[in-house]
Design brief:
7 strands; two-stranded antiparallel sheet; alpha+beta
């Protein structure tokens, strides 16, 4: 177990709230994407829904173990398909992604000023994460 204080945590989280545009296609996409993200080295890539049988609003919680997992994520997220399947994004980032990770997120449209939804960023303060 590693204890962290202020900015020394190497991992960070993104919480993305969004609407589902095409339920069947989203289920197919997520079934494959969760396996891809595990191979990318992410610590978690989990979806939560407002209604299990007929979700309209979903929340994605993803945890990046380090910068290399985020590089792989951006390369493999299939961003055009993702943006077609989901809309009305709100994004919260928890932790301290490196500047290069912020720049990759901005290039994909998910960091201000290019991000159009509600956005918040909360830097890491302290805690632990079990390995």
């Amino acid at each position: 177990m590693s204890h962290y204080h202020k900015s020394d945590a190497p991992h960070w989280y993104c919480l993305v709230e969004m609407d589902v545009n095409d339920l069947d296609a989203a289920r197919d996409y997520l079934s494959m994407q969760t396996r891809i993200e595990e191979d990318n080295g992410m610590l978690s890539f989990e979806y939560f829904v407002d209604d299990h049988d007929n979700p309209h609003r979903v929340v994605l919680l993803e945890c990046f173990s380090d910068e290399s997992s985020q590089v792989s994520h951006i390369e493999n997220i299939r961003i055009d398909e993702f943006k077609n399947l989901f809309s009305n994004f709100n994004l919260s980032v928890y932790g301290n992604p490196p500047q290069s990770a912020i720049e990759r997120m901005a290039a994909a449209g998910f960091w201000p000023p290019v991000f159009q939804g509600k956005f918040s960023h909360m830097p890491y303060f302290m805690g632990f994460r079990k390995a």
